[in-house]
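User: Modeling request: complex.
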Amino acid sequence: MEQLHRDRTIAMLGEQQLLQRLHRFCAEGVVGDDGAVLMPQPGHALVVTTDMLVDGVHFSDRTTSAADVGWRAAAANLSDLAAMGATPLGVTLSLGLPTALAVEWLDQFYTGIAQCLQTYGTAIIGGDLSRSSVVTVSITAVGEVLPHQQILRSVAQPGDVIVVTGPHGAARAGLEILTHPQWGQALSAGDRVSLIQAHQRPCPRLDVLPILKQLTPPLKIAGMDSSDGLADAILQICRASGVGATLEQASISLPPSLQNPEVLAPQQALQWSLYGGEDFELVLCLPPSSAQELVTKLGSAARVIGHIVSGDKVEVLGRDGLKQPLELQQGFQHFG
Amino acid sequence: MEQLHRDRTIAMLGEQQLLQRLHRFCAEGVVGDDGAVLMPQPGHALVVTTDMLVDGVHFSDRTTSAADVGWRAAAANLSDLAAMGATPLGVTLSLGLPTALAVEWLDQFYTGIAQCLQTYGTAIIGGDLSRSSVVTVSITAVGEVLPHQQILRSVAQPGDVIVVTGPHGAARAGLEILTHPQWGQALSAGDRVSLIQAHQRPCPRLDVLPILKQLTPPLKIAGMDSSDGLADAILQICRASGVGATLEQASISLPPSLQNPEVLAPQQALQWSLYGGEDFELVLCLPPSSAQELVTKLGSAARVIGHIVSGDKVEVLGRDGLKQPLELQQGFQHFG
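Assistant: Request completed. Predicted assembly structure:
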């Protein structure tokens, strides 16, 4: 663990100084009472989502700097809010830290968190610190949504079309470049940086929510985010809604830089876009006319990739005209 | 770690079975979407509070069973809500778990959490599971309070009297019995059980909130809970409010079983009641007439223990008529 071999450790700083240092990164008025106070808008439901990240399990120094660990942790929780149609109200952050942790690591980590939260108009509103043998991050995000604007996995209907708010596979390609730098030599330097960025600094799609609110007529939208992969999102929505889906391979888009067969063979491209994960796009199911309106408003990166059908078959219609079932890849298995 | 040496581990169970097992302990409808949805009452502010507990730092098998770890973790967060005047809406629970953890430990832990939450009319509404080398518990509780009924540390005023909702020192005595069983032989078996219970199953004082709402006239109450000790609570309130306080030693009460000098010498009794910690009572500052009304309504265990003064001196008036400054004991130092 590289983060342990630096000059100054948090043990040298002591608890009071450590807290003072971290309060700089928090919303004003955080310090003081036993809990943080938030005022939701009238008539709004609250959405609460939580994640735990453990050093060596969810992140490693090899591919992720402290600042990126912070950004990604915040982004994942904001994406969970976006996936429910909710706007963030604030985030609590609990950390378990080894006493030998470098102060520098912690500063960078908080900088990454704060940058992400600030980008999306929210802040750290509370938290807890504890000693631990392993760096452990627990984030809870609270958001608000008008009940009829809530996005749910369970309300997809046959006849809905499936919209993705952006391309898939970029984060997976970024990880490949970081772990196997010899990969993708046909990519331009700029494209390599963009793909790495997609892995290190994913963007939760909170910007989609105001556009969804403008759709006419207003409707109940089914959906979730694609952080565990596009295939996983579609399978989860179909399972929760008791429906099936047909995706069109030709419509499932990678970022332009990966559409070059010299970079990525077509079969590999499909694998990465379906199962790569961590792209943080929204996968939404809605009637065709509203879907078209949404895609137009979101711009060229968004597109219709398939439609919901009755039954329980979830299939990909290949360029060869043959259908293949979408696999349930066990993403990240923690236990067993 | 005793919890690792049992027959069946969570690795043997596998992730899907593990999740199914834990969903039994959660509120209905938890499973499914990316976040939990709560509907606060109109006009209410939200209070969010969070704690991280780490095996070997905050709990150990020697004094705390898995069920008690769960109860205490839930109770501490509910007590933080009570300390703000807030009624619980729900709790999220993230766990970091070694793969070799006994399933039995996890079952017992969830049972303890669920028992506590059920006792206080709330439930687990979401969470996350991760592999970790050390058992790590992160709890976030969300509550609601009408803004004018919020209890704050910062609004104590000279002339207010200080009310505690119950005796202090019981949890400390319970810990002593668990760690030094030869201690307190003069106590009856029933009293020993009660004191151990005070340590293992502390009760957040959410029951005080409806009584505070009945006080006439309605008023802005200063206060917090005494989970870090009675002295710490008074010092925190005085610091946040820019005031001092005078406590009367004769009024600071231990539970009846500890008032016997054969069990506890008076000086030790004062130490434990001021600095013992983990009693989860509320320490409230309010005008004398309202304080009297509150004490009457709460019953005999509640009492006035002193009053707020101008300046910044926080002192204890001894039985000998001499004043001693209240010490700022560094409770639990995690770092440095």
